[in-house]
Amino acid sequence: MTTTTDPSVSHQDLPRRIGFWGASAIMIGIVIGSGIFASPTSIAKQMGSPVLILSLWLLGGVIAFFGALTYSELATRYPRSGGVYVFLREGLGRPVAFVFGWTYMLLTKPFAAAGIAIVGAEHLHMLLGYEGDVRLTTAAVIVFFTAINTPGVRGAMGVAAVLTSLKVAALLAIVLIGVALGQGNAANFVAQEAPKPIYLALAPVLAAIMWTYDGWSDVGAIAGEVKEPQRTLPRVYLIGTAAVTALYMAVNAIYFWLIPLEQMKTSSTLAPVIMEMLVGPAGATVVTVLVVVSTFGATHGSIMTGARVTFAQARDGLLFKALGHVHQRWQTPAVALWVQAALSVLAVYMAGSFQKLASGFVFTMWIFYGLAGLTLFVFRARGDAAAPFRCPGYPVVPALFVASAFGVVVLQVVSEPLETLPWMVVLAAGFPVYWVWTRFFGGGRPRAA
Fold first, then answer.
1. Coil, helix or strand for 99?
2. Which of 101-105, 215-219, 232-236 ranks highest by mean pLDDT?
3. Cα torsion angle, 447, 73, 34, 99, sign
4. Concatenated DSSP letters of 395-436
5. Which residue intervals of 259-353 are DSSP H helices?
6. Least confident of 145-154, 209-218, 405-414, 434-443
7. Cβ(328)–Cβ(337) below 8 Å
8. Domain boundaries in the chain?
9. Conformation bin of residue 82: beta by default, left when phi > 0, alpha when psi is -120 to 50
10. Percent of the chain having pLDDT more than 70?
11. How many percent of the chain have pLDDT more than 90?
12. Average pLDDT of the residues in 71-96
């Protein structure tokens, strides 16, 4: 079968106003969020070897890069708003795409946005010396950035560019100042007795690492708004993922060089501790501000991309019509943005902690990352028209990515069966919900523009 239509043209999409730098700022801004500040301490509590931990950080970067290679071809085949949702719809059919979108709208994206924002809110409280309910602050942050995203994509891109630049500068400052002052100790890299067997530690460690890398795929959600998508999207995916991997490896190496593993286990976050070591009390305050900027910037980007998936699904007739509404003046999916905000606030109060929010996100999302990777084999096998970008190393690279994605899921199920059971129930419920939807709400027909 051969594709007969141009997938870059869609009467149902939003205006193409985002260029390379805007898309890169959004992607990198989402990836560098709360994880690089919150995950290292939780990882330190699971393993005794800094070298092994660094190796797993590198493995996470390789998995993400293989995913970026795979998704670069998928996104140039279907450069439409929705990303993973679109790949699943075109490759595995509407029922699977519906289940993804149903889970994404109700759980995955709300938990992701809430998980990022709650770390920023905690640091904001630390900065201000405020002891109030962090959940209330987190909810206010989500509402604030939803309000910024509603009036238009140009203003939202400007905010993303500023916040991304600040957070990259902050992480580079930690690395450069740490190296320049030379206060580290190579002995910190010597392995200690592990607190638990590696087979028990691997799942939570990989979940934390893959959470921290997550966001490389989100640029696909705004593909329908990217200018020259066949040329721009692969560059954003690959350059952004490689740059973040290099930065994460450098930051984690500095963490270990400066702070012994035992001390990491007792710290809630590392960046302020390190900067206080390097430049005194003022350094801790500066980095705490930058942690707030970083996490709030990721929240901003996550809100922007998440609503596009719900918008795309509603435009296909697979969610309520109002969710596919485009604001007449601002040309944004305003209804989808505010529904997402309400669900994100609800997620904050349901889970209430970074660890629970991150764990739920990683489990559900990596199932669909793997399934979306499988669609590349479907498109190639059925003879669809060649994509402008061809995944190098096919079929090995996408196969390794798909296997890694499902491996992360299996490890989490084995190590935390009771914790993952509710998420599996929600996923399974998606199929009967799809049947009900197609039976009683218009048969799942795409709506006209």
1. helix
2. 232-236
3. positive
4. THHHHHHHHHHHHHHHHHHHH-HHHHHHHHHHHHHHHHHHHH
5. 261-265, 271-279, 281-315, 334-351
6. 434-443
7. no
8. 20-440
9. left
10. 92
11. 32
12. 93
Identity at 72, one-letter amino acid code: S
Rank 8-22, 167-181, 206-220, 241-255 by mean pLDDT and report only the highest. Answer: 241-255
Rg value, the chain, Cα: 21
Average pLDDT over residues 431-443: 81
Structural contact between residues 348 and 114, judged by C-beta atoms closer than 8 angstroms: yes
Do residues 298 and 121 touch, judged by C-beta distance below 8 A?
no
Residue 302: closest CA among 138, 94, 79, 71: 138
Q: How many Å apart are CA 11 and CA 9, to the nearest integer?
A: 7
CATH number of 20-440: 1.20.1740.10
Angle of the 229-258 helix axis to the 271-279 helix axis, nearest 10:
60
Sequence-distant (6+) residues with CB within 8 A of 301 are: 26, 27, 29, 30, 160, 215, 218
Residue 171 token pair: 């992480």
Which residue's structure tokens are 């060649």? 386
75-79, 200-204, 363-367, 420-424: which is most confident: 75-79
Of 67, 115, 142, 122, nearest in space to 360 by CA? 115
Report CA torsion sign: 154, 158, 160, 164: positive
- Which range has highest mean pLDDT (211-215, 251-255, 354-358)? 251-255
pLDDT at 63 (0 to 100) = 94
Structure tokens at 444: 């799942």
Greatest mean pLDDT range, 9-23, 27-41, 435-449? 27-41
Residue type, 191: A
Cα distances (angstroms) measured from residue 61 to each of 52, 134, 210 = 14, 31, 8
Q: Which two structure tokens, joined as six digits, stand for 234?
A: 């692969």
Q: Is 6 exposed, middle or buried (0-12, 13-18, 19+ CB in 10 A)?
A: exposed
For 164, residues 6+ apart whose C-beta sits below 8 A from its C-beta are 25, 26, 28, 29, 32, 297
Cα–Cα distance, 203 to 180 (Å, whole number): 35
The rounded Cα 85 to chain-centroid distance in angstroms is 15
Nearest to 68 by CA among 411, 357, 400: 400
Q: What is the DSSP string of 112-132?
A: HHHHHHHHHHHHHHHHHT--S
